[in-house]
Amino acid sequence: MKSEKTLSRSSAERRRLSNAGLLGGEPTVAKDILANVTVWIAAFFFASPLIYAFFSSLKHKDEIYAVPPRLFGAQLRWSNYVEVFTYGPFVRYILNSFIVAILGTLVVLIVSTTAGYAFSRLRWRGRDTAFILFLATIMVPAEVLVIPMFILMQKFGWVNTYQALIFPFAFGAFGTFLMRQFMRGIPFELEEAARVDGAGPFRTFFTIILPLTKSAIAVLAVFTFMSFWNSYLWPLIVTVDYNTLGTLPIGLASFSTQEGTRMDLQIAASMVSMIPTTILVIALQKHLIKGIAMSGMGGR
Fold first, then answer.
1. One-letter-per-residue 3-state SS of the chain
2. How far apart are CA 247 and CA 231, in angstroms?
3. Spatial distance between the Cα atoms of 77 and 83, rounded to a whole number of angstroms
4. pLDDT, tens digit only, all 300 positions of the chain
5. C-alpha–C-alpha distance, residues 217 and 295, integer Å
6. How far apart are CA 232 and CA 246, in angstroms?
7. Which residues have C-beta within 8 Å of that of residue 68, sequence separation ≥ 6?
8. Pairwise CA distance, residues 215 & 285, whole Å
9. Most distant CA atoms of the chain, gap in Å
10. Which of 103, 107, 109 lies closest to 210, judged by CA?
């Protein structure tokens, strides 16, 4: 009886010390405050170039090159954002980028999920060898493939078309590798139970595997969308009529001419171009964190 009272008194004393932050193993209030302050300071330093770019987009073009540099201009020129859309077919550039990025992302998701399922869950001769060869294509720089792909687009008659902007880079190995690694972490018992219930490979893929890979699909969707959205070299080469099929990176480059660069408008256009990707990352933040954390987990 006495030992029980002593034990309960000791537990109460430990709780009191823990709440006061006096136990070495418990985080103290001071540590929490220090951690939060450190995070906010680091976030400010990382965000400071973006903050400076935003206020630079509201300056006159001559004030951007002022020495010493100043955060604010003589006045906030919100008219720069209006002028961006009257300087050239900027709305068309945005629309083309959305078409290419959305359709390209859909194609990549379809190809990567099905190929990842074939490489991770299905048993067939030469599977691992084929995957290694497929994965080795990641080591080939995209610049090396530009000329062969352009010749191929010419033979298909796809030069200056949406197909040429979407399909050549829609079958990369990165998405397949990501989906394969994630799917290998799904217990095989779920698939075996579905097979016992009479489900075939297609039904198993659509009803069991795909719903469990939402986080990895979100990660791949964000990376792919940003890749298509920011692509510059390939659209520059395969597009002839920039006013009709030009994408946002080409539109940003159009502010630089032989007469000079409208840096104020170029920075404002850059800020506008960041909005869709920022919204996408914020909307899928929960799935991104989970997908990145789990995509490297292996299975059998």
1. CHHHHHHHHHHHHHHHHHHCCCCCCCCCHHHHHHHHHHHHHHHHHHHHHHHHHHHHCCCCCCCCCCCCCCCCCCCCCCHHHHHHHHHCCHHHHHHHHHHHHHHHHHHHHHHHHHHHHHHHCCCCCCHHHHHHHHHHHHHCCHHHHHHHHHHHHHHHCCCCCHHHHHCCCCCCHHHHHHHHHHHCCCCHHHHHHHHHCCCCHHHHHHHHHHHHCHHHHHHHHHHHHHHHHHCCHHHHHHCCCHHHHCCHHHHHHCCEECCEECHHHHHHHHHHHHHHHHHHHHHCHHHHHHHHHHCCCCCC
2. 8
3. 10
4. 445 444 445 555 555 545 544 444 445 778 888 888 898 999 888 888 888 888 888 888 888 888 888 888 788 888 889 888 888 788 999 999 999 999 999 999 999 999 988 888 888 888 888 888 988 888 888 888 888 999 999 999 999 999 999 998 888 888 888 888 888 888 888 877 888 887 777 888 888 888 888 888 888 998 899 999 999 989 999 998 888 888 999 988 888 776 667 888 888 898 999 989 888 888 877 777 666 665 544 443
5. 10
6. 10
7. none
8. 10
9. 93
10. 109
The two structure tokens encoding residue 62: 């001559």
